[in-house]
Specification:
The chain is an alpha+beta fold. It has 5 helices and 12 strands.
């Protein structure tokens, strides 16, 4: 049955605003490949909201705790609690730490909005029975049997999102995910991050030592993973990050130095006024 429905979403909420701080994992965890095209019967495309423009390595470092070169070793995709939005959690082995304190050879988790979940998992992620029933009876769902809901998928591909594959490599600018009290599909001891600036913080490795400068291309528009756009070599990118880190360090030092001088001047003025 070809029940393909295309939903164009002008603004898919970001992980922060989608209620993804409290998430429950789908029964289905990481799979080595994307479902067959005919199994994805509903597709949602769009842009993440609340995204600041980060146009340089310096901007990215300001928004990051670390920058690393790493490889995807595992992933899970699950529906966010209350919204059902597919969310990807990738395990990345760090090959080279370019900024910050992340250790080479260690693993971190990268949380991203986007992916695919079964229609059944999408429906069941919603909080109330009324919501679940409304989706079950809506177009694209109603014509499917309960068994088909478990084998057909809804995909979410916001700007810049590619379905993950084990072995993917890239340079990632990392922003920590805050600790939460709710149930989440990772351990409290895991180091979990978002990419700074969403897709802006991911340089995907297109070929050995060559990386695509971040752009909003996605699996929806580039299913063959050609990664269109301008490229930069690893050495060039590494040099840019190093230069940005030096500028950031100098700026921070001067700001702190000026702040100390300001407070010293205020203290001296106060002492003079007291003596007068």
């Amino acid at each position: 049955m070809n029940c393909k429905k295309i939903i164009n979403i002008l603004c898919i909420c970001s992980i922060l605003s989608a209620g993804c701080a409290g998430q429950t994992a789908s029964p289905q965890t990481g799979t080595p490949q994307t479902p067959a095209k005919e199994e994805i019967v509903i597709t949602a495309n769009g842009a993440a909201s609340d995204m600041d423009y980060l146009g340089s390595a310096e901007d990215l470092l300001k928004a990051s705790e670390a920058a690393v070169y790493g490889e995807v070793t595992d992933f899970i995709i699950f529906p966010a609690e209350r919204s059902g939005v597919a969310t990807t959690l990738q395990t990345i082995r760090i090959i080279d730490t370019l900024y910050g304190e992340a250790g080479d050879g260690t693993e971190i988790k990268l949380l991203m909005m986007g992916g695919y979940v079964t229609l059944s998992d999408y429906i069941n992620a919603h909080k109330t029975e009324e919501e679940r029933q409304a989706y079950r009876e809506s177009e694209g769902f109603a014509e499917l049997s309960d068994e088909e809901l478990k084998t057909k998928y809804i995909s979410f591909t916001p700007e810049g999102y590619y379905y993950p594959e084990i072995g993917d490599k890239g340079v990632y600018f990392l922003k920590p995910v805050p600790e939460v009290e709710e149930s989440v599909p990772w351990e409290k001891t895991d180091h979990v991050y978002w990419a700074a600036g969403n897709w802006q913080g991911i340089y995907r490795e297109k070929s050995d030592g060559v990386f695509v400068i971040p752009n909003n291309s996605s699996s929806s528009y580039d299913p063959d993973r050609t990664y269109p756009g301008n490229t930069i070599t690893y050495d060039e990118l590494k040099a840019e990050i190093q230069k940005a880190a030096e500028i950031l360090c100098s700026t921070t030092f001067l700001e702190n130095f000026n702040s100390i001088q300001y407070h010293q001047s205020c203290t001296l003025l106060f002492i003079i006024l007291i003596r007068c």
